[in-house]
Amino acid sequence: MIVFCIISLILFVFLWIMTKKINSKIREKEASLGKKYKIASAGSIKKHAEAVVWLKGEYFVMDGEKIKEDQYEFFVVDGDSMDKFGVKSGDMVVVNEDEKDISDSETSILVLKVHPLERNQTKYKLRKLIGLYDCRDDNGEKFRIWIEEKKYASNIENPEELSNRYIEEDCRKKIEECNCLGCRLLVSKTIRKSKILRKSKIHYSFHPENSIFGRVKYILPKENVKIIEKR
Fold first, then answer.
1. Is 19 helix (H, G, I), strand (E, B) or coil?
2. 39: burial class by Cβ within 10 Å (0-12, 13-18, 19+)?
3. What DSSP string runs through 82-116?
4. What is the pTM (predicted TM-score) of this model?
5. Based on CB atoms within 10 Å of each CB, which residue in 136, 157, 207, 231 is the most buried?
């Protein structure tokens, strides 16, 4: 009985090692056949900057337009903070890099280029635009009036929270940065989900206007996307 158990254990370990080796070779082969795409973060800090992906098809037809990869920039979405706006984690967004001139009245979904932070390799973020604020000669009250106006145009759920955050030090620095760069302040939002409280909360972000990489033109559903690995 003991001998049988020992043989069974050895056999189990052998099969486990062989399975790992086979899976590793399959993964390497898949990675060699896949293509690297940049990751656009939609949520908290991410440790990956790109992903190896298989796309189901050489081209896609969207709104009657034949979309090829060499016409646009493709980004893999990582995170679920854009769910409410129709973009899910695992989707790919098709971005027109030439469309950086965003009017203040639009509520577009944008890809922003940012500086990676410590533990965060992501260089691109996905955000829902609220508006572009001209922060020159601002005294705080001007921003609150602007937010109240945008409340009706862009369906801002809690303008008081947004205007209060504006007067915090971190946002003041963003205002100063925009003034130095000679550009407007980009105000955007995402929806953060609390797993503990099971509630969603709006998260507002502030970036210089020149951080816009491009506007999302199409969303490629994750059913057409197979992510092999993130790097």
1. helix
2. buried
3. TGGGT--TT-EEEEETT-----TT---EEEEE---
4. 0.79
5. 207
Q: Give the model confidence (pLDDT) of 26-54 as tens digits.
A: 555 445 567 888 999 997 766 788 888 88
Domain spans, the chain: 1-33, 34-230
Q: pLDDT per residue over 46-98, tens digit each?
A: 678 888 888 776 667 777 777 777 778 999 999 999 998 999 999 999 998 77
CA atoms of 183 and 79, how far apart (whole Å): 29
* 205 CA to centre of own chain: 13
With CA atoms as reference, report the closest residue to 111 among 83, 70, 82: 82
Place of tokens 């899976």: 23
In the block, tokens 């145009």 appear at 153
